[in-house]
Each structure stands twice: as structure tokens, then as C-alpha cells.
Amino acid sequence: MRDIREYLKEGALLFDGGMGTYIAARTQSSHRACEWANLTNPAEVESIHRAYLDAGCAAVKTNTYAVSRLSFPEETCAAILKAGCEIAGRAAGDRAYVFADVGPIEAPDDRDLLPEYCFVVDRFLENGVRCFLFETHGSDQYLHSVAAYIRSRDPGAFIICSYAIQPGGFTRQGELAENLVRRTWADPNIDAAGFNCITSARHMVEIMKRITPVEGLFSVMPNAGYPTVRGNRTFYNGEPAYFARQVAVLHAMGARILGGCCGTTPEHIAAIPAAIETPVAVVQYPASREEPQRETKEDPFWEALCDPDRRPFAVELDPPDLADTHRFMQGAEELRDSGADIITIADCPVARTRMDSSLMACKVQRELGVNVLPHMTCRDRNLNATQALLLGLCAEGVRNVLIVTGDPIPTASRDEVKSVYNFNSRKLIQYVASLNRTQLPRPFHIFGALNVNARNFSVQLDMAKQKEEAGCEGFMTQPVLTWQALENLKLARAELKGKILGGILPIVSGRNAHFINSEIAGITVDQFIIDCYDGADRAKGEELAVEFSAGFARRMRPYVDGFYIVTPFSRTALVGRIMERIRRDGPEGEGSPNPFFDRPFFLD
Fold this sequence. Notes:
Elements: H1 4-10, E1 13-14, H2 19-27, H3 37-40, H4 42-54, E2 59-61, H5 74-92, E3 97-102, H6 114-126, E4 131-137, H7 143-153, E5 158-163, H8 177-185, E6 192-200, H9 201-209, E7 217-223, E8 227-230, E9 233-236, H10 240-252, E10 257-258, H11 266-270, H12 272-277, H13 300-306, E11 313-316, H14 326-338, E12 342-345, H15 357-368, E13 372-377, H16 383-395, E14 400-404, H17 425-438, E15 445-450, H18 457-470, E16 474-479, H19 483-495, E17 499-504, H20 510-519, H21 527-532, H22 538-556, E18 562-566, H23 572-585
């Protein structure tokens, strides 16, 4: 066949539809791991390719979407890829282009996945495939590197990168659709960019409005509507004629590579050529998404953080584990009256179910008139739930959020309670920052966590810098209870641009100190401090808590913009005493003599 670039100069390139869902419909089976059929039922796979070709498509995807060494043993992986190339090539012959279909490769850890992509690419090149479709990706993390690798092996290869976009315009990893496409178009190693899967054709039209005018080759392969589940099987009921009309609108808006994804059958593909020949009225849209009307009034807590003469207090109060908020609200009121500038509310700490942090934050702010900072984890919500919650918080006037990955569900509970983890804290920060720019009239100030107790603090510091690049404006540190944590805090101050709130955790007893050291990840208590509590009763324990908390605050003051105090066991009166003591000591205060702070490693 002639060069695909020449083909595209003359008209649209029409792809096939959704192999996985179609083979499941034909064989009355699950579409998961349909790639096995390349080895177990190659005749069926070839028959499906031919059905799409007879429907008029000029490009077919190999049945290899989920094949990698992380999903199949290496020899099996290579065999499925080879068979997929041979089956598609046999069906296509000289009448269609064969595209290597490569879905996102995912791992349960943070390993480098570039070698896995390169392994798959090498198998395709060995089997003579020169066109590549990287589809249903949630980010471009590896795609630019993989494209450069393909170009080094075959300079004439044709590469499409296609992203799975939610109807709201974001990927499941929190990437904004228009940002992804424009970055991809800017890469000289990639020929085309676009969208596929998750979204219906009609919603894809809405998303494409934000990207006009089209600046490069644009690819669209929507789903046939949205799925329903019956009897543990997934069905798509989208009408072929309606689907084709929406694809024709996408074509009129500038898409030159067309096709279908989940639920699209040969009937859907066959309806497209006639639809794009029919004139379509295209409304001219602005070049980018309109900016929301912004409020100009700044958040009072953020103003306090930016004042070099102030060190505002953020105080954490755990939400109740029962549907009774009376004691919690009393505590929040006491903290407000004691001078807390903002009340932070944890999101089910240590993965134990408590009242929702965001709902509690709205209640506190509305009823007590005190600023709030809810924690938001990546553990319990998917993208839709996260966006819905953020929109609600914005409407309630909440202006600050703390984004954390969240403690994992304990192992024994995993069979009954599942973690979600659609994204890590850096991706969620990037997502909230994108919402700030595109949808929110009152943008959130985004805070992240910084573990100054980490043994390899350089890794934590690198992650914090990545969070800043993603849009994080400030950090709340783990409690500083060792000299090493203080040294790490000094280093963070020198390296990071954002505001820093130094963590303070009042230790109230020796038992409390031993528990924290043994069972709470990310917090370390110096042995000298633990020894001070031996034999101390409650009153003495609270005196020591005030002394150590105020002492660490004095030492942290030059390196922080505010203090982040964790309330132990709902003892809000104790936190009030600590805040008063820190204020009384002031920037020049020496505090009461304490041998811990007189040790040489604490001297400047």
C-alpha cells in the first residue's frame, strides 16, 4: 500500500471498531483477555477483522491491546503479539493498514515501564508492523520516549497516541485533555494525537470544542454510547446511525482519523463514510476553554501564611467515628477560640472509617465561621467522585485542601474493602490544579504532605518538587520530634518554593510515645523524649507536651511559614495551651530550660 501520510493528505483514515467487546458479543464470553484468542481461536479473530474491513475501514488494529510481559509470561507475550500481527496482516492484505495496538502498561509499583513498552515495540517491528496506535492512555508519561525509540528503529514508522478522556475532559490520571493533545502534537516523533474509549461520540464533540482550531492530525475513536451490565456482561446499545452522525461532526471539526472503540460493531463503522459525506453545520468555537469568573478576595489563612511576621496555626482534629458531631464541634469551637487560624480534618486516618472529612469541613466552616482545610486521599474515590467532591467544596466556600495518597486498607480487609487509587498524590494535585484553571471560580490552595522523618529524605524532597511542578503551593510536614527531622526541615526550606507548615505532635505519655514509634508510619520520636515521660502522670505528661511542642516550634520558626499541630486524643485544651505558649515565646523567646534543646546538634 502507498505511504499512509500520502493517504491522509487526500481524505480521512477510517479505523475498525472495538475488538474486545465485539468478540465478546459474538462468542458470548467476557472481553477480558480477548488477546488469548490469537492463539486459541485465530479464525474468529480473523473473521472479525474481515467483518470490519468489509464495513469499509482502511485500518485495522491488531488484537494485542493488553499484551505485555506484566500481563503474560514473556514467551506467551511474544507468541500472542506474533499471532496478532499475522492474523491482522492476513485479513488486511493490500486493502488496509495494520496498526500495532498498544494499551497502557501498568504495574503495582513505581518501576520504570519503558523497557516493557520497548519489548512490545520490538516484537511488532520484528513482525513487519510499521504503524502504531497507543490507545486508551491516561497520560503521556512514556509515550514520547517510546515514540523516539520507534523512530530510532524505523524512521518511517507512523505513530498515533490516543487518550481515554472522561466526559468532563480529564483522564483517569487527572490530565486535562487539551494539554495532553497539544503536548503530543508538539512532539516531532508522533504523527497524530486524539481520544478514544470511555467517552461517547457526543461528549467527545464537546471535548473537541476546547481544542479547536486543530493544530495537527487528530484521531477520534469514541465508544458506542455508555455501557450497561446484565448478567455479569457489559452491553453497549448505541445506534450506528446516531454514532456515525456524531463522528461526522468530529470530522467536520478537523478530525482526520476516525473509528470506534468499545461497543462499536461493523455496522457502526459502515455508517460513517456516508455520514461524513453529508454536509454538517459546524459552529465556530473559541480556541481554548473559557476561564471561569474569578473571585478576587483572597483566603485569610493564605494571607496569614504569606505574612513574614506571622506564623499561623493549622490544627488537626480527627472527625468522629460515629454519627454524633457534638463533641467534635465543641472541640472545633474551642480550637477557634484558642486562636487556631484553620482547622484541618483528616480523611479516614490509618484507613479506619470516620465521618467524611469534607462534609465535616463544610459543617465547621458554616456553623462556626472558622477556616477549614479538609484532607483528601487518593484511596477511596475514583475520578468522578473526586471531581464531584471538589465542586461541592468550592460551592461551600472551602478554599484549601491537603492532598495525600492515604494509608492503604489493612491486608485482612482487602477481600471486603477495596482501595481505589486512581492516581497518586502528585497526579491528584495536578488534577486539582487543572480544575482551578478551568472550572472553579474560587481556586483551591493546594497543600501536600512532606515526611521529614524519612530515612532517605532526598527521595521525599524530589517528590515534593514534583508536587510543586504539579501545582502544590504548600506543605504540611510530619511531626518534628527528632534532630534529624529538624535538619531535614532546614533542607526543605532551602530547596522548596512553597509555604511550609512545621508539624507538631504533642506527646502526652510514654505509652503514647512508644505507640507512635511502633505503629504510626512516618513519625519518629527521639528516645531522649520517650525517656522523659517515664513515671509521668497525666498532668506531668501534658506539661512535657507543652514544653517539647513549644521548644520544637522555636527551633522550627526560622524555617516555616506556619505551624501544623495534631490534636492528641481530642485534647483541644492542651493544644490551646501549646498555641498560647508558642505565641508567648514569640520569635525571640528562649522558653524554659530543657536539656533536650541544649544538646549540641540543636545549636545553630
